[in-house]
Structure formats: C-alpha cells, structure tokens
Write a structure and sequence with these properties.
FAD/NAD(P)-binding domain, 19 strands, 8 helices, ten-stranded mixed beta sheet
Length: 311
C-alpha cells in the first residue's frame, strides 16, 4: 500500500484531497484562516470554467449566481474606480517596503471581478463551499487529525504524532517557513522567505444598517473593497453587516473612519514580500500561496493546477 499525504487542510489542501482520493490529508485545525470569527478581507470564488464545474460537483443541488465585485482605490481622500499612475508602486512600498509592484499585489490589475455566489450565502459563499468540502473529506475518511513532527525526504520518512511512516508522495500546502522547520533537508534553504505583517480590524458601521440599506447609501453599493495609500489602513472590505480594515502597523484608535472596532487580529506575518514560485523541493510538491511562496495563488489557481495533475 502506498502512503500518500497532503499537508494542511486549508482551501488548497481540501481541493487537492477532493481530486486525489488516494491521499490522506493531515491537519489538526482544518480550514486555516477561515476559522477566524470574521472574513479577513475579500474571499472570492472567481467565475472560471474550472471553478464553476468544481462548485457544481461539490454542491450539485445549489444555485450558482454570478456577481461582479467592484474594486476602488483611495488616494488623497478620494475613492476612484481606477488607480493613478504611481498608485501600484506606492502601495508596494507601503505594504511591503519595496518599490517594484507585482501584478498580484492589487487584484492582478483588475477593477472588477466576476465571481460565484452560492444560493443565499452571498459573501459567505467561499467559507460555505470549503466547510462543505471539509465534511466530504471527513466522510471519506481522508482526514488525519494529527500534526506532522518531521519529514526526512531522502529516506522518504514522515513522523506523525511521534510515529514513523514511509511515504511515496507528499503534497504540501503549508507555509514554507513551517515546512522548513520540520523538513531535515530544508534547514539551509537559501530562499528568502521574508514577510511583512498584516493587521485585521472588524468594525461596525457608524450609520444604522437598515437606514443605509433603505436609503441606498451602503458603501458596498459602489465598491466591494478599496485599496488605499493615503491612510493608516491599506484595504477595506465592505460586508453587509461590518467592515474589515487591513493595515501593516497596528492601529491604536478605537475607531477607523468613525467606525467602531469590534474585533482585531494584529501583527500576523502573512504578507509575502516577494514571490518565489517554488513548485517542488526534494520531491515534495508545493501547492498554494504560502507553499509556492507566490502571492498570485488563490483558490482558482490551485484548482487549475490540481486539474492539470489529474489530467
């Protein structure tokens, strides 16, 4: 019997496990950032052909709706639907301390994104899909509720909760900094895995929600999320019942733009400074944004890659 493993049961690992049915997926805390008590910024299922097919296969009885997310750009106190000439470079410097902007830093240059919403779930469609997928993986018996202690690639050994196993294939969706700590051959890896920090703030709308909806003044009627270079926050995402602000440095105030901060998660080292696009290290296949160390990777790119594997 071959021992094949997927490390990490966030969205990337769950997509892989859905198609690679002969793999076990290892994680003590599945769903990753989706376990946070609020959605930490835009989580969109881009409406590609592969994603539409994938959603339908997971939720065959559900209605798929196509919606458009509109992106704004805040500069000098004004929000516009397209960035100025220097906006991208200034945003790269503000968020990562570098002058060169990668196309993926700001939604790959898009100002509108067609995406999928499922039934009545709206902005929660992303989390709903992957929560459903996790239950499918559990029902199949693919999930191992454990932690990986160590990997020895040259001997094809993996240690799970202190027990040693021989493996034939590993797909890792783990952050490379985590994988490096548990993989013997990666101790002297020369790659620069630098990150900058991100802070997330869930805030209440300062105006009455029902009034905003009735009078059609709710911010999401114009933009779904907004990048900013002229404020102490770098992006705001408008949900129906709350706003999420992102920043590089902690915000000491109790309010942002007059909106009261309700919850916060600060100094998370999850902002990739420069993409490396790593696909394989010592026979371990990388899958996902932090595994490939590529800021461009989202759920639809993961899905496309897995589909090429199985085809």
């Amino acid at each position: 019997m071959e021992n094949k493993y997927i490390l990490g049961a966030g969205p990337a690992g769950l997509i892989a496990a859905y198609y690679l049915t002969d793999y076990k997926i290892i994680d003590k805390k599945p769903l990753g950032q989706l376990n946070l008590p609020f959605i930490p910024g835009p989580r969109l299922l881009q409406a590609t052909d592969n994603m539409k097919e994938f959603v339908k296969s997971i939720l065959p009885e559900s209605e798929i709706k196509l919606e458009i997310a509109v992106i704004g750009f805040n500069e000098d106190g004004k929000v516009t639907d397209s960035p100025s000439k220097n906006f991208k470079a200034n945003y790269a410097m503000k968020t990562r301390g570098i002058k060169q902007s990668e196309s993926s830093f700001m939604s790959e240059g898009m100002t509108e994104i067609e995406h999928i919403e499922i039934d009545e779930h709206g902005e929660d469609s992303y989390k709903f899909l992957f929560t459903t997928l996790l239950n499918i993986i559990k029902d199949r018996g693919q999930l191992i509720d454990s932690a990986v202690d160590k990997i020895e690639p040259f001997d094809k050994k993996i240690f799970i909760d202190g027990k040693e196993f021989i493996y034939t294939q590993i797909v890792s969706t783990l952050n490379l900094n985590i994988l490096k700590k548990i993989t013997s051959s990666m101790e002297d890896m020369p790659h620069d895995l630098s990150t900058t920090k991100k802070c997330f703030y869930k805030a209440k709308y300062k105006n009455d929600l029902d009034v905003m909806l009735e009078e059609k003044t709710h911010p999401s009627l114009w933009f779904d999320y907004v990048y900013s270079i002229g404020t102490n926050w770098t992006r705001q995402t408008f949900f129906r019942d709350y706003i999420v602000y992102e920043s590089v440095d902690p915000i000491e105030d109790t309010h942002i733009q007059g909106n009261e901060i309700d919850l916060k998660f600060e100094n998370l080292p999850i902002q990739i400074k420069e993409s490396l696009r790593i696909e394989n290290i010592d026979g371990i296949h990388m899958l996902g944004r932090f595994a490939e160390w590529d800021h461009q990777i989202k759920a639809n790119e993961v899905l496309d890659k897995v589909k090429t594997w199985i085809n």
